[in-house]
Amino acid sequence: MDAAAAFATVPKPTPALFSSSAPLPSSRALLRLSARGPRRGRPLLALQPRSQSQPGDASHHDVVVVGAGIVGLAIARHLLLHTPLSVAVADAAVPCSGATGAGQGYIWMSHRTPGTDTWELAVRSKQLWEELAAEVDSLGGGGARERLGWMRTGSLLIGRTSEELATLEERTKALSQAGIQAEFLSTTSLHALEPALSVGKDGGAMFLPQDCQIDAFQAVSLIEKTNNSYSPEGRYVEFYNDPAMSLIRSEVTGAVEGVQTSQNILYGRKAIVIASGAWTRSLLHNFLKPASTLDIPVKPRKGHLLVLENFDKVKLNHGVMEVGYVGHQVAKLDSISMSSESGDNEHDSSSISMTATLDSKGNLVLVPDGKPVIGFVPDMPNVLIATGHEGSGLTLALGTAEMVTDMIVGNPGKVDFSPFSIKNRF
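== FAD-dependent oxidoreductase domain-containing protein 1 ==
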């Protein structure tokens, strides 16, 4: 079967509360293939608001996180696990309503480049996912496979032309030198590994056996369970279906003290974290107008999921991506204008992905320089932003959460903060 139309099916996992789908960016349709089983139902209604305050009430917390995607929830989790701080999370909807719920769940290094600004963050975040999976495995009860959708599928980066194969050989060498287990596969070796996959007589691949895949819905469910275990002691509360409307400032000093939502007032004694993904830019405009000229150029980018069902006769055991996709994404970053809002240039910033799951679409977060935005807002020493993880929110979530926690409590970071800072960047 041709690589551009192949799908993976694996034995059906035991049903869990959540499941995942898979849009990741590319204007070339059918480039990413996911090695996971049939789609299960998505009982999002199970995630009902757990607000402990009545509408209009004011509540006090150490940290308020705006955004309940994988990044926002992971930040809350890390704060709860590694500090004594209390956390409130507010969101206009419920978890997995946006890009997180449409994520295919690759925890991959195959498309990362050693020495780039995001390399160390990706390495650290993958390490944290590995540690979480090992911890879940140690608890029994189905382990990480059942509770995270964790699969060490490995990844195949496919090339069809001599130029693409040369790129793959160079990438294999660079990743190996950086300590990543990587192997270049000839056409024959690739066919032996994936008999159902055809890339032509001149094709080949780079194989990373340690790359993994998770289930976004199950991962969010697990993180939610951890976070809510701190609710009885008063350290965690959620405000879902309750959009943030404005920042609350001190009438005396002008300092930011909290967030006004549609139903509640949430005071944050130590920090306010904006982790609202594709909507961070417009949210900040609402928060800061008219006094500030700050503009964080993050832009929603549509990701569509195309579905083919009843592919039982075709089986792939590994995640698959075409190397042309990686190069294409770099070119797209250089060519897309950030001057318009999400409704403009929709065709230019559209991406299509494919997997054997369920129709879905989500808004990825496009940043001009391709790096997440993680850090304090200038002149607001207690307001942080964590956004711009375009297509990599699941991969980078745990590393981002650790970084934000270190920033809030003043710890030196395990990963250099500076490449992700807002200051002097846009």
